[in-house]
Amino acid sequence: MDHEDPAREDLGAEVLRAIADRPVSRRAFITKGSMLAAMAAVGAVGSSALLSACGGETTTTAAGETTTTVAASTTTTAGAELVVKAIKSEPMRRFKFAAQPHIRNVPYFNACETGWNLAAKDLGVDMEINGPSGIVDTATQVSEIESWILQKVDCIVTSAADAEALTPSINKAVEAGILVITLDSDAPNSKRQVFDLQASADALAEAQIDSLARQMGEKGEWAFIIGNLTQAEKKYEFEAMKKRAAEKYPNMKFIGIQECKDDVQKAADQAQQLIVANPNLGGIVSNSGAGLPGTCQGISAAGKSGKVKATGLAAPSSVTGFIDDGTLEEFFLWDPRHLAYRSVAIGINLLTGKDIANGSMLPIYTGKEEKVEIAPNVVNPASLDIVLGPPLKLDKSNVKEYAAFI
User: Cα separation of 152 and 117, whole Å?
Assistant: First the structure.
């Protein structure tokens, strides 16, 4: 899908319209969620999920072998508390983990690989990391998941660039008894057990649009560059930003969305096209790790540094120069090493019979652990996310500290 016309009002409208009537936000679910809402979140999974909430059933075969039946669902409530249920109850061993970013050899996912490898060493599991290199390639992701199913790995961690395309393979893996954790980019309507989420989608949306509004003086035209329109979480953030801007900043006008396919040069070209086609453009948001540095590159090339504002999400090392020259004032992220490290800890817990509830402590790096926050998924509230924490604002005061390793 190629969106090269920056003047078009709402590119990808057919795709985005499908989520316009999205479920209640995570924040609303938590703050307004009575017991009825909590029961609804469980009831949506179906009666088989209620039976499996006890964590599965152990049986003995005629040959005397002990097997563990995998729970069909891992979402339930304990009182008013959301819980991610263990899917197996095996003794600790060197579990086989397989992880795939949706694009390798970029700063953000390089940091994730650091976290995965360190967790494997610290926590005592075997780790295989694959994934498409240099470009987003859903077919490669699907092929790798299918291969891991045949290898009978214990846990797959995947960043789903195309949620719909990966869902059948994710479901097949779960049905084969494999634990599946999504990370960074979710497949919310799949059977994956939990989404290892970097920060609340609502919090990320608010941080980005509020930053742009402040920089623009709460008035003027703004545009959006997304990585892939197939990314459920990224689409939700975009829709939440557009809604918040319309409600809170009525003097800001949204003029269109571009899809850069997580390609820096394409995002740079799109930013320049947006500037040329819209002389009154005041700012661009990109929640793509490649989209924001590309946006800054395009703004700089157009001679609009400091005039056309920018913000979004990016690896600090990819935008430090733009912070230094004034093209970019501030942006947001989290520590992807911690996110990836925690996915391994989540997997070990769910494979060894340990449920994960709000307030549980999980390691996020060598010698470092934090309390767990669990919340209903914003796209599919019947499934659960484990949230790493609030978004981290990066600017001149701290960008170089983080750029040293992300």
Answer: 20
- Per-residue pLDDT at 51: 24
pLDDT score for 178? 98
Asked whether the whole model's pTM tops 0.85, one would answer no
- Together in a domain, 66 and 181: yes
Picking from 333, 357, 382, the residue at the C-terminal end of a domain is 333
Tell me the pLDDT tens digit for each residue of 304-343: 999 999 999 999 999 999 999 999 999 999 999 999 999 9
The one-character DSSP state at 24 is: P
- HSE-CB of 195 using CA atoms within 13 angstroms: 31
How far apart CA 6 and CA 273 sit, in angstroms, is: 6
Q: Flag whether pLDDT at 17 surpasses 70.
A: no
Q: What is the mean pLDDT of residues 142-165?
A: 97
pLDDT level of residue 405 (50, 70, 90 thresholds): confident
Looking at the domain assignment, is residue 109 inside a domain? yes
> Which candidate, 159, 170, 152, places its Cα nearest to that of 132?
159
At 228, the pLDDT band (50, 70, 90 cuts) reads: very high
CA distance 299 to 305: 6
Q: Is residue 244 part of a domain?
A: yes
In this structure, are 345 and 327 located in the same domain? no
- Mean pLDDT across the stretch 53-69? 35
Distance CA 100, CA 145 (A): 9
Find the helix packing angle between 232-248 and 201-216, rounded to 10°: 40
Which CATH number is 50's domain given?
3.40.50.2300
218 plus 321 within the same structural domain:
yes
Give percent helix, percent strand, percent coil of the chain, each to the nearest 5.
40, 20, 40
Read off the amino acid at residue 314.
A
CB 374 within 8 A of CB 356: yes
Do 73 and 124 reside in the same domain of the chain? yes
Rounded to 5 degrees, what angle do the CA atoms 259, 260, 264 make? 160
Residues 128, 173, single domain; the answer is yes
